[in-house]
Automatic annotation (TrEMBL):
Residues 1-22 are annotated as: Disordered. Signal peptide: none annotated. Residues 27-140 form the ARB-07466-like C-terminal domain. Gene3D superfamilies: Fucose-specific lectin. This is Peptidoglycan-binding protein. Residues 169-353 form the PLL-like beta propeller domain. It comes from the Bacteria.
Length: 354
């Protein structure tokens, strides 16, 4: 799947003008280096085929100015991968800006599988390319100077510095292709950063929006039943808010409240039947709980919160046991560890036991 783009506002760059090679300075420019790392991180199994080219080589090329990159994908067998990234770059954004990310990166033109797309002729779409290479084993990206220097809104539109996570403790989850870290900023916004492969490079901190009331404390992120992420956080209004990725990987357009009356950060777990369950401490120190119904009910949310009793401090912890039932732990007001458990998935709960 393509990289995750920040949630940009409506302001956007003009299309990159055509700026062909004039001098020779083959050192790779920073925008190309970051674009290369972003793409290779998103598509493991593909390869980079170079940015720079020697000045004495044949022809005129932005490679000789360090502002072109060849992405190694084959038209025979990997065309869907190439089309996925190109579609991401040329898609119209939610503000109605066509070719939005190609413009934000400052891409001047792309060549792939005997066709070329040029920002200076964007309305023409893809047109036949008859150069000496058919570009069937790689996609060629040439950047304008602004994009090559990281002066376009892919970089400047996110601010000069990364968001600082300043409230609570970040939440970390392994999504199967690397780690994702989520945290709450001092402004009440939620931000995250991620790897696209295990041990790979980290993205920049990227906004995830915010509950209408603002967020506090530590968010809880986990992988849901589609293999996609869901994030839960306590709002400043004391209710539970969440956002999630669709099966296609797109984040929900707005945070959605699940109600409740929370005095602690949430703890969330995925049951074997694909349903999510949420636990938190209420202002009286008792544990409160809501959940999704099973697949026979379309995994819809229960719609209310249930009092599970207890006398807790801090946030509860929950996990799924060997028989598929949940096990819930709290630190009691007596400073001892207490727990309750289910017998099997969806089974009855025990009483609290120390």
């Amino acid at each position: 799947m393509p990289p995750t783009a920040p949630d940009f506002g409506p302001g956007i760059d003009d299309y990159a003008p055509h700026e062909g090679q004039r001098d020779c300075d083959p050192a790779a420019k920073p925008g190309l280096l970051e674009f290369r790392d972003l793409v290779l991180g998103a598509y493991p199994g593909t390869q980079g085929m170079g940015i720079s080219r020697e000045c004495g080589g044949p022809g005129v090329s932005e490679h000789k100015e360090g502002r072109a990159w060849d992405w190694g994908v084959a038209a025979d067998g990997q065309s869907a991968i190439a089309d996925d990234l190109i579609g991401w770059l040329l898609a119209t954004d939610r503000h109605g800006n066509p070719h939005a990310l190609a413009r934000r990166f400052g891409i001047m033109y792309m060549i792939w599988n005997r066709r070329i797309w040029q920002a200076s002729r964007a309305d023409a779409g893809w047109t036949p390319y008859t150069g000496r290479s058919p570009h069937t084993d790689h996609v060629h990206f040439s950047f304008g100077w602004a994009g090559a220097r990281r002066e376009t809104t892919w970089w400047t539109g996110r601010g000069a510095t990364a968001p600082q996570v300043g409230v609570g403790i970040p939440s970390v989850v392994d999504h199967g292709s690397g780690m994702v870290v989520s945290g709450v900023e001092g402004t009440g916004d939620v931000a995250h950063r991620w790897q696209n492969q295990a041990g790979g490079a980290w993205s920049a901190w990227t906004p995830l929006g915010r509950p209408s009331s603002g967020a506090v404390g530590r968010p809880w992120a986990l992988v849901g039943r589609y293999g996609k992420l869901a994030v839960f956080v306590r709002g400043t209004d004391g209710t539970l808010w969440h956002t999630w990725q669709s099966e296609a990987g797109a984040w929900a357009p707005e945070w959605v409240s699940l109600g409740g009356h929370l005095a602690s950060d949430p703890a969330v777990v995925l049951s074997p039947n694909g349903a999510l369950s949420v636990f938190a401490r209420d202002p009286e120190g008792r544990i409160t709980h809501t959940w999704q119904r099973g697949p026979e009910h379309g995994h819809g949310w229960h719609g209310s919160w249930v009092d599970m009793g207890g006398a807790a401090q801090g946030r509860p912890t929950v996990l799924v046991g060997r028989d598929g039932g949940m096990v819930l732990f709290i630190r009691g007001t007596d400073h001892a560890l207490h727990h309750r458990w289910q017998t099997g998935t969806g089974g009855p709960w025990s009483d609290w036991s120390p």
